[in-house]
Design brief:
The protein contains ten helices and eleven strands. It is of the alpha/beta class.
Length: 261
């Protein structure tokens, strides 16, 4: 599975560096995990999949060594916790390895990728960017949640749309709801794949190695202020408005590995 491969590769890069989980919570809009490292504290975020909640046991404390199992757990809340921990560890690796991430806006990068008469598919609710793209090419949106669908198509139409698209823009929630592998298996061989949103903050070189061409995500600059807002039900837009996020775009360069479909 894609998520498991990402987790395994991140752990391999992490090595024996000590990581301590300080706090975690499945909040209304986003799940978070706070970790302490030798370089300070880092907060990872992941979409809380409220549409996939089930009655079951709770209380799983995320552990770094169990990361591959967490991101593939049958319980969606545990998977969200695993992706949040993955993103926190990845933020640490970005800092430890002095990875240069350029501040950029996803809308600007998508605009650069568009070509006249191309076909683009936005998987998840990314309406402002999709609207911008529709000025240049044919655009489809797919959305699982009926309350967010509006003019989008339901995800049951995925196999009818994705194979015809030149550009796929996938929200990071696909890592949590277990649809990422299916989506990638349907894409055209020459399609450009973009992974976006706070849940897509895994270590960029790993995502690029596994076939993601462009990543548009964010890192939390002030963990404790963000936690206070998340516990009150805050979402991405409010955290961005408060200046708590470093938004970046990472582009796969020629020669980096790709993942077969």
């Amino acid at each position: 599975m894609f998520s498991k491969l990402v987790a395994e590769k991140v752990l391999e890069i992490l090595g024996n560096d000590p990581i301590k989980v300080l706090d975690q919570c499945n909040c209304l809009n986003y799940t978070y995990v706070l970790i302490r490292t030798g370089l300070g504290e880092f907060l990872g975020l992941a979409y809380t999949p409220i549409e996939d909640l089930r009655a079951g046991e709770v209380g799983t404390i995320p552990r770094v060594e169990e990361l591959p199992d967490l991101v593939t757990n049958l319980d969606s809340l545990v998977r969200a916790m695993g992706i949040a921990l993955l993103n926190a560890v990845s933020h640490y690796l970005v800092t430890r390895n002095r990875l240069s991430l350029l501040p950029s806006d996803l809308k600007s990068e998508i605009t650069r990728l568009l070509r006249p008469r191309c076909t683009a598919c936005f998987i998840g609710s990314i309406t402002p960017v999709a609207e911008k793209a529709s000025e240049v090419c044919s655009v489809y949106q797919l959305e699982r949640r009926s309350d967010l669908r509006h003019g989008s198509y339901p995800d049951i139409d995925t196999p009818l749309i994705i194979p015809n698209c030149d550009l796929l823009v996938i929200t990071g929630s696909a890592l949590i709801n277990n649809t990422i592998d299916y989506i990638l298996s349907l894409k055209k061989s020459n399609a450009t794949v973009v992974l976006s949103g706070p849940s897509a903050a895994a270590y960029p070189p790993v995502l690029h190695e596994l076939g993601i061409d462009v990543i548009g995500s964010s890192l939390v600059k002030d963990p404790y202020t963000a936690i206070d807002l998340l516990k009150l039900g805050a979402g991405y837009r409010l955290m961005d408005k408060r200046g708590l996020l470093f938004k970046y775009v990472s582009v796969r360069h020629h020669g980096e590995g790709t993942r077969g479909n």
